[in-house]
Design brief:
The protein has 336 residues and is mostly helical. It has one domain.
Amino acid sequence: MSDRVIAAMAALLTGAMLDAMIGDPHSLPHPVRAIGNLIRKLEGLRGIFPHTPAGERTAGVFLVLLTVCITAVSAAGVLILPSILAARLFGPAAGRFIRYAAESISIFYFLAIRSLREESGLVEQALREGSLSDARRAVSMIVGRDTDRLSEEGVAKAAVETVAEGCCDGIAAPLFWYMLLGPVGAWAYKAVNTMDSMVGYRNDRYLHFGFAAAKTDDLANYLPSRLAALLLILSAAILPGYDGRGAYRIWKRDRRNHKSPNSAQTEAACAGALGLRLAGDAWYFGKLVKKPFIGDETRHCEAADIGRAGRLVTAASILMLVIAGVVRSAILAGFS
């Protein structure tokens, strides 16, 4: 095994351990916030093109291209340039260590295993304490829908759905692109996903401008979402207290019950594993949006299901880390 493979695997393990120990402290600067600031500035592209559907879509294409390219180049620079400088000043060993450290920190930042558990855990805690207002406030931080109308069960369902979807967006997808293209690929994905969360809405403001971002996000998540769903099913079959067969059955039946080609993949697997009915109609920006259900309502969703979904996603995340490590090692070994 080459030194490059060993260093990459050490960085993956270190990054995952940092995420498990630290999560995403709001006091630390985060690259995703920088990407968000970049996207807000690039919204100015709308003023360059005609205010027509075609002009808005063209501006949206440039938004995607510029955001992904700037993010990828910046990530490559942060990963490569300090290690080159350290190698020239202090020798090859120093260069290798700086590269390992930079890659470890990069992985720590693009993973969201602990933060997903912590943020959903705040919702569970508020529900257990009987404070619906606090639970609505906590869940509003992790969902895009209106939360002021949600019942206790509605809040719990929204949190479970977010945890299930986060298994792809925050964990499996960045690791998928990391194992194929390295940390730069993971950050290119994070740029796409951040764009979708900011401008990928079907409302009057972003219907055309956000079209390219939304479609690019669909494409980037197509394979990772399906892989994440299969890992959730496998985890449900392994862990006690979950229904592996139910996870597979509901996934096979309901994985297309969403306008997005990807969102229902992990939600269906999670719904089947927990024996819950998720999704359904929801309010967005004051408008009721009709959506099909996912899963069978064998029982009502409750606060404890948020933690159960989190444990299932954690197990799937560990499996994804192993897969990413094996595939990344094989790719690097092939280029050695």
